[in-house]
Each structure stands twice: as structure tokens, then as C-alpha cells.
Design goal:
The protein is an alpha+beta fold and 295 residues long. The chain has a single domain, classed as Sandwich (Jelly Rolls). It has 6 helices and 15 strands. The strands form 3 sheets. Strands 2, 3, 6, 7, 9, 12 and 14 form a 7-stranded antiparallel β-sheet that branches. It has a 5-stranded mixed β-sheet with strand order 1-11-10-13-8. A 3-stranded mixed β-sheet has the order 4-5-15, with no helix packed on it. The structure holds 2-oxoglutaric acid.
């Protein structure tokens, strides 16, 4: 590993996760998880997608507070869509009207998910593998550079955060490698410390779970390389994508709702996104039709 990453103290404990290894309980990394033919199939499928830009807050909240900001990257969700403006899935209290039933995984991803679930079930147990756990929500993150006010800005990072969905999380990466770090927050004003880090290579799989990696540490994407010259073509104006990540998690099925069954307010909040998605997706067109003709 090269130079010390930003925010790391000289003697901060760090775990390096190696290819196809389980160095620390709760962390698994497989650098060559995605086979070349699967990768080709996945990329061909990705090229049919129309990812969207989401805003962090609802239009209603933005009007009331004067605050609004676009997410750093275009996204697409499968299985169920957790809209940023509905504030994602945050048990125990933030579970209703957060996860909207979305398109199923394409066959190539479904096959990979089956293998990931098998591997995860073999590695986690007890409280680390909640009853009913399965990977039913997938966030597809596009990393790259955005055109902002006529300038190209590298937005290929994610700030430190927790994933609140119960149980292990799996992450498939394609394109340029990304520096993924688990961090612990420093005292007020002090930088976070890096507890473990791993470059996520093209075609790799990372699985993390258990109290340490899910609850006691945060995680972030610190930066994304440019070594391969990778470039994905998405119909997203003003954005050049060099890495795509699939983050797979579990939302208890009872908390996944069809769009037509969301509370009226939440439905109003996300309807503009559903309308945008419906331009290119029969699934989302049906959601809007279902709202007009309930039952
Ligand atoms: O892109 C990645 O590797 C991680 C993304 C992530 O942490 C997230 O979507 O919650």
C-alpha cells in the first residue's frame, strides 16, 4: 500500500484485506469475483440503464429551509429504491415509506447475488446474520467527473457513513479501482482514523458485516484511480463515469412498498423521479398507471 491516506495517524491500526481473503472476522475480499464473461454481460446490461440525479431533500423541505443539494453522483436502484429525499432506510424509526419496490436484478446480477448469499451464509451467523437476510436492494453508484458551471469536477468519492440495513453488505466494483476505508470518528475537530482499507479492483467483491464493521465503524470511498482509462457510456449529460459500484443490502420485505401504497406525501415527494424513470422503463410506467387505477 502506498502513501498514508489522508486522515490517518502514523500508528493508526490498519488491516489490509487481501485478494480472496478473510483477514479480519467480518471482512471478505475477492479481487476476481466477477468472471470476464459476467463482466461483459453486466456492462452490456448497464448500457441500457438511464441513471438519474437525485436531490438530497424533498422539494417541500427545500422550499421551507432554502437548502437543497444534488447528490455527488448519478444513481440507479434495483429491488427497492431508497430515495435520498425520503432519507433512506434507517431502523428502528425510519422504516415506513422509505423503500419503494423497484425493478428486479437482471439475470447476470441475480446469479452473482446467489453466489454472494451462499458465501455470506457460510461466513456469518448468529446476530450477524438476521433471520430472513437476503440481498434485495442494490444501489448502483456511478463515480466520475461532473460538469459544474462549465468546469469539470472530480466527484468520485463518498463521505463516511453507516449502512443501516440489517446484516452483511456486499459490494461489487467494476472499472477503475477505488480506495475504500473503514473509519472511526476522532474527537471533535480531529480527523477520522482509518481502521482498515482496501483498494476495490475491477471485478472485485467486498463483503462486510458484524458489529465492528457495520455498527462501530463508518466507511467511505476516499478516491477513485484513473490508471485503466476506464470509461462507461451512460446517457447522463455532463457526467463522465470511470467506476460503477453495486452495493447490495437487505431491507426486511415488510418494509418494501409498492409506489401506489406509499403515504400520499411520500408519493408526491418521489413522483417526479418515478416520472423521469418511466421515460425509459416499462416497470416505472406501470407504477404510474397503477397509481391512476388502484387495485
Ligand atoms: O462505492 C463503494 O464502493 C461504496 C459505496 C457505499 O458505501 C454506499 O453506497 O453506501
Amino acid at each position: 500500500m502506498s502513501a498514508r491516506p489522508a486522515g490517518t495517524r502514523p500508528h493508526a491500526p490498519r488491516t489490509r484485506v487481501q485478494a480472496r481473503a478473510r483477514l479480519a472476522p467480518g471482512l471478505l475480499y475477492d479481487a476476481t469475483f466477477v468472471a470476464p464473461d459476467e463482466r461483459a454481460e453486466l456492462v452490456a446490461w448497464l448500457e441500457t440503464l438511464h441513471p438519474i440525479w437525485e436531490e438530497r431533500f424533498t422539494a417541500r423541505k427545500a422550499a421551507a429551509t432554502g437548502q437543497q443539494r444534488r447528490l455527488l453522483r448519478p444513481v440507479y436502484w434495483l429491488g427497492n429504491w431508497q430515495f435520498a429525499c425520503l432519507d433512506y432506510y434507517r431502523p428502528p424509526n425510519g422504516v415506513d415509506d422509505r423503500c419503494v419496490a423497484a425493478e428486479p436484478f437482471p439475470p447476470v446480477l441475480a446469479r452473482m447475488v446467489e453466489r454472494i448469499e451462499q458465501r455470506t451464509r457460510a461466513s456469518f451467523r448468529g446476530p450477524d446474520l438476521p433471520t430472513g437476510w437476503h440481498l434485495n436492494t442494490c444501489l448502483i453508484n456511478l463515480y466520475g467527473s461532473a460538469l459544474q458551471d462549465g468546469r469539470t469536477v472530480d466527484t468520485a468519492r463518498v463521505g463516511e457513513h453507516r449502512d443501516f440495513e440489517p446484516g452483511p453488505v456486499a459490494s461489487i466494483s467494476i472499472g477503475e479501482r477505488a480506495l475504500f476505508q473503514f473509519t472511526t470518528r476522532g474527537r471533535r475537530g480531529e480527523p477520522s482514523q482509518v481502521a482498515a482499507q482496501q483498494w476495490l479492483d475491477d471485478g472485485s467483491l467486498l463483503i462486510f458485516g458484524g458489529e465492528l464493521w457495520k455498527d462501530r465503524t463508518l466507511h467511505r470511498v476516499q478516491r477513485v484511480d484513473r490508471r485503466l482509462g476506464a470509461r462507461f457510456t451512460f446517457p447522463v449529460e455532463g457526467f463522465a463515469t470511470r467506476r460503477v459500484n453495486f452495493t447490495l443490502r437487505y431491507v426486511p420485505d415488510r418494509h418494501v412498498k409498492p409506489f401506489a401504497e406509499l403515504a400520499a406525501q411520500a408519493r408526491d415527494d418521489v413522483r417526479p423521479y418515478v416520472q423521469e424513470l418511466a421515460k425509459h422503463s416499462a416497470f416505472f410506467r406501470r407504477l404510474l398507471d397503477g397509481e391512476r387505477t388502484p387495485g
